Amino acid sequence: MRTASRAPTITVRWALATVLLALTLLLGRENWPAFQAWARTGAHGVVLLVPDARALAHPVTQAWLDAAREEGLSVTPMTDNRFVQAVTRHESMAGVLVPDTVHRQASDVCVQALYSYVHQGGQVLLSYDAALFGLQEERYAAPYSRLSELTGFRYALYDSLRDETTALSPVLIHREAIDRLAIQPGKTDFEGPLARAAPPAGEWGELTTYGYGHLLYPHYRSETMDGPLQRGHIWMRSPEGHPVLSQHGYGQGSVLFANLPVGYLKTRTDGYLLHRLLSHFARDTLQLPVLSGAPEGVGGLVLNLHVDSNAAERPMLELERSGWFRQGPFSIHLTAGPDAYREGDRLGLDMPHNPRMQALLRRLHAQGHEVGNHGGWIHNVFGEQADAHNAARFAPWLELNQQTLSRIVGTRLASYSAPMGNHPDWVTDWLQAHGFSGYYTAGDNGLGPTRAYLDGQPPARDSPWAFPISNLHRIATLDELPQAGAPESLMTDFIRDLMRHVSAQGIVRLFYFHPASAPDFPHSLSVLPGTALELQKQGRFRWYTMQSLADFLNRRQQVHWQLQMTPDSDAASLQAHSKQSLQGMTWVFPKGRTQGMHLLEGQAQIIEDAEQWRVIAGDVHHLSLHWQQRQE
Q1: Which of the two ends of the chain, N or C, has the fewest CB atoms closer than 10 A to its terminal CB?
Q2: pLDDT per position as a tens digit, 16-68
Q3: In terms of pTM, does the model score above 0.85?
Q4: Are the C-beta atoms of 236 and 177 separated by less than 8 Å?
Q5: What does the alpha-carbon distance between residue 324 and residue 330 come to, in Å, rounded to a whole number?
């Protein structure tokens, strides 16, 4: 191991009250019991390493904690000083997360503690610029990152590369990593020129997002240590060949290194990789149970219909006549005004004066479908002209659309989708003020429902849930196929693969389309109910609406739970409670290491699936489980 010079010893003069106050503000009441237990007993699950209490207020720290919570992980912050103590005392920690952006500075003592922890069998998820600077200075450690031996290659080579230390490029992902990380269908393009140029042929695909030719990520250029990295240890790389995601063994432990700022990216509506890495680290590397984001752990889709002009009227009626709406429930959003493309064109639905569509809407609502607000009265005018500075003009259009549709179905609408995906920040404020529970978003492609960050700042705790679209490379829906020069079969296969993916993973994603285009894509529309029926017969798929899933997620946010793993023993337990009912809350356990599970308190179903156990809580407020954690 390269020996780093020892940084000067400093005394941390934080009062305990300051630390506790900062933690209370950051974690919120829902995570406070877990921190109290950690502080009281010294028993550690997964910890998020932060330099000191000040870092708890940073948006990127919050992004890591929010992503962990949404992925169902139990994570507690731990300061560097406390981590050094824990390693010195040989206290057990399930795993350690070292975030980007907020942890650039670290003492040599903390760096050595990380080496010791991993060498003794610890597992670490390390991100980008963590510990690049010494404790007292804002400059790179020379001649490369002090953590290079943990990652298996030298990076942050500022002494030799200077302005070329970092690069900005697309990212390629290996086929094996797609399976390991459970990357969503449509996120990776194996047919583009970058993927085709990457040897060996057919093994690397380009990571994509909606609406951009290339998804560009910053990363550190690198060089090998004493020999080349084994290919199987590099899961993602740049076109130049620099590792972007890699796993490396050190001593008895290992490090999963994300050479990109995944926490910062989440604060900029690109949280997909952070979420996937946290889920993989907890479920596959650490083999820990997680709290599912789907009721009873059953995956599914939110199918979001955008009905935005009178061109959709006849296709909607035809879909009803064919029995297509017998599946569901779906989230059906309408733009209700008389115009569509420009004021006065009379191409809108004109819902106040359209008895045929009013009747259809009432029938669909009576069947259980959700009716929602598709924005500002005149679809394209709102979509093209609404911006950060003209809320005074367009907020009344949202209100008019809301009042019109609510009056027709006899209930207040609670879900929203932006015309043309145009969603200025003030719209989120308007939705929150009017009691909306969810909205469609073009950001965070591929995620499930999330509380979205705005301009780098954390969302309010009671803000509506954002439902990101699921992208197929650079498009997301049927009527974008022609502009991409792609056949309908590409979308048909994508829909089928997406539905099977959410079913297998027990997650919920959103897919949307415009009914006006339904006559042009009959095969794709038929595969939706057909595949759903196939998976429903196996008990592995459900349709969800935005509102129903948001209501479930709001209850899930109120669940306090923690794991207790006894050091030097295979005994483990889970305690959960909530002021609201735990009904439908589901903990998913990896089957390989869990045995002898039994219920100590509460009511729950324990279901054995092929590769996991599901513990589905009943209508109780407390739950206690005990099992044996088989050692590897």
Answers
A1: C
A2: 333 343 444 444 434 444 444 444 445 689 999 999 999 999 999 999 999 99
A3: yes
A4: yes
A5: 11
